[in-house]
Design goal:
Structural class: mainly alpha
Radius of gyration: 26 Å
Order of helices and strands: HHHHHEEH
Number of domains: 1
Distance between the termini: 80 Å
Shape: elongated
Helix content: 40-55%
Strand content: 5-15%
Strand order of the largest sheet: 1-2
Amino acid sequence: MFELNDALKTKAEKLLGIKGYVTNVPRDELSDQDVVDYYHDLWNVEKAFRMTKSDLQARPIFHYTEQAIRAHLVICFMGLMMSKYLEIKTGHSTRQIRDQLWKVHEAHLLDDRTGQTHVMQMDARELGNPELIDLLEPVCTH
């Protein structure tokens, strides 16, 4: 027969602590188990932030107005969304895609005589990554 050692249980709880989850979402919309499951999925968000810092080379920028802060967050979030989309579509990591895209070059040449600017653009097909080329095709002129 087994007997529960309440003193040992109390001691263990004090050492381990008690974890609680608080949300403002009503229980009929999100069960207690769903709240815990979403909390356990936070590693995906943390991975995304690490990726923006390393692969996307995003760095903190200090803004002072609410509008500037919101704009900065939107730009960072859009970059993250686009990088994830490219990862899914190409099967390559954001770092690999970034390294390929950094090979794309464009030169703007000003003709002093006419004042006209000529744009010389590298052909994106030179990247050698067919999945990335297909995705870039609508936005690249050849």
